[in-house]
């Protein structure tokens, strides 16, 4: 856990730091409500990926699922987004749910060891 | 945290509360000193509130030509100078993907006709979501225009444990950062001062945030486009300097400037003392190139800084931009800054939207050039589809480093707790249903008395006029033409206002987005998104506010589809038609121990018909006209907030004004035309001749008989009937009557005689008028104004009248159940509503869509009514 004075550039680094790459990436809709993850890839047709990245769904950001499903509600950056992902594939590297409400920024060293394959809600 | 903070703390400005301040006239030409300020920012950043706080309630709302974007302007005065503020629609990025976004950016660049070039930008930045907001701010800063950052939602951010240091942020961005709490009016004076000051501040470097290799390729592409004269297509209308200009004299005196718009003078008035330092600004073109260290991290394989790039690095400054705009050149920047901006955007625009918009038939040729440039960039190891987002967010991270601190743990916010319930599968739906039910109740309950009062007022006025103006064409024009038109407009106003107040409140507090989430699954089945739900639902009251509410739908296709199918929803104006016909023709049968009535079922069937047809039309439109994949749907769920009465009030007022102005004019015009068609030719001698003898006799009897005698009553009744027969005779020979008889063959397969046809034609301005016209046509005693079908006596008489009406020359009755059903089906689907068509025109900014709506709905209505009659009469006769 890092302190409040965490370096912002580290927090929003474009690439995930190698030490967090322990968990296998999962599609976003495998995450349950309250689960967190780091976005590792975003595939969308045409220009959609660019727009999604612009409004915050970019690689390396922490994403937290508020309501799973399609459409789903996620927290990313400081915003809450409603996302219908028919043709958008977001892969996330899950972060371990610690039971506590997570910080919306990336936590260095947070481990996402569990491979829980769950159906989408 | 310093509050309120202003970077230029030495600014001598304090807001002068000038009691003589009045809203300045809007015409630009008449203003000597007027600075145009663009207000720009992400959606849901409190931008509208800030706009209202800046300019007060005197706002001008219009549309930009050709698009549906709302053009909102207002003015404020500061130290004698007038600032015109243009509120741009909420943007997440300057990377445009729709015509609406394109217009917003063109306004910012001064390329939109009718808006003076922007002199300064206020970039609204939400403190609770700095990263995403600064992404846009970064793009804006790179334009080089004088910019002030307005930091909103500082209170919200603090509540979330986020603290921002505006001083440090200002230092990093190189522009003033002013925290504002617009709803409390805090910081607004400081913002005005900062805007005034930034106009006078020394030039500021553009912040080149994209790697140099992209700048270089962009520059090369620019040269190639210029060679083929394609740059004219990018910067149309403004005639920007596109060739190399040689005037190197950058040290112009600002006081003799000849700005290219309306002769506006940039300088403030004498109190702000502009002359002394102006020459310094223009000799200050040596700007540090921020490029190298900006992009260090982004180009991760270190492929920036080519020789070409450093040669043409766009060292534009604010003043230099100003020079370019004035037609002067600056060294090293041969092209118009807007051409430079758009060329760079072309490189990033992977869906080809800009190419299509700018180059039309040359798009493919341009696309080849662009692709070559992209390939050259790719050869350096950068991908144009990713590099912009990466390096801009990296810049944001650098800017925010140490400027903002986040809480260690994410605290659940009030919005989260509310959303836990309001977006819940069960509770959320229940609450949504409850909210919608309340809305409908309120509209019908609260609007009813107002509408009735309006009706009564119109009636009373008609009474007065009939006394003031002698009977004749003039009286008839005023009462039946103008007044009934005005009445039709006014009776809509209360329900539109109340419905819109609800929608505005839901929108302002953030609930609309949640309702879109809840309804998305349902609406995607017909190819729309959840955002179409509330407009469609509102259309059950009236299509006018429904269509106006489609402004929340960003996707142009979804928006048009919703607009086109909204009039199919069964609005309250259809109810009088249904009420009359169902009451008279559908037998009062009950099934299942009295729980289901046949009449109720027919009414339900008509509602279902509208919905079913809307679904089919929506699917067809999506397949045929608005083809292309459904774009993935992303919507921000803004934090909940208390709705601001000012915003809600303004919005309702604007909508009502729009309705009265647009729909009112059209309805009035159409009413007068329809009146004339029903009135002329008014040959009194020929028409009244057959009735003259009896009329004279009755008049004489009436004069003779004492008040209250039973004979007198029967004579009076006969007199009234005679009057109606005369009126009918007039309508029979009127242009409309003739037209009705002329096109009777067209409507005969629907089971309609000329009277029904005429009534339907005459109900073009508003469909409920058909009841009144039918009343006249079939000689109903309750007169042409209101038919109260619930009263036993009227109903009985109506029934008798309509049942006994026969086809001319035969005793075949005109009305039977299939005819009644065919009329109702026709009215369920037709577009007999001038108000709706006027609002569609206004919202789509084109006459094509209302014409299309009218054509498709009338065709549908005709064939559906035809099928109903033909099938219905076969079943009943067989």
Structural class, from helix and strand content of chain A? Answer: mainly beta
Give the spatial strand order of the biggest sheet of chain B.
2-3-4-1-5-6-8
Fraction of residues in β-strands of chain A: 25-35%
Poorly predicted tracts of residues of chain A: 1-21, 98-121
**What is the CATH superfamily label of one domain in chain B?**
P-loop containing nucleotide triphosphate hydrolases
| CATH homologous superfamily annotation of chain A | Ferrous iron transport protein A (FeoA)
Number of strands of chain B: 12
For the record, the CATH class of one domain in chain B is: Alpha Beta
Strand/helix succession of chain A: HEEHEEEE
Tell me the total number of β-strands of chain A: 6
Query: Roughly how many Å is the radius of gyration of chain B?
Result: 33 Å
**Multimeric state:** heterodimer
CATH class category name of chain A: Mainly Beta
Low-confidence runs of chain B: 1-32, 237-332, 781-790
* Number of domains as seen in the coordinates of chain A: 1
And the CATH topology of one domain in chain B?
Rossmann fold
User: What value does the average pLDDT of chain B take?
Assistant: 78
Largest beta-sheet details of chain A: 6 strands, antiparallel
Query: How does the overall form of chain B come out from the CA principal axes?
Result: elongated
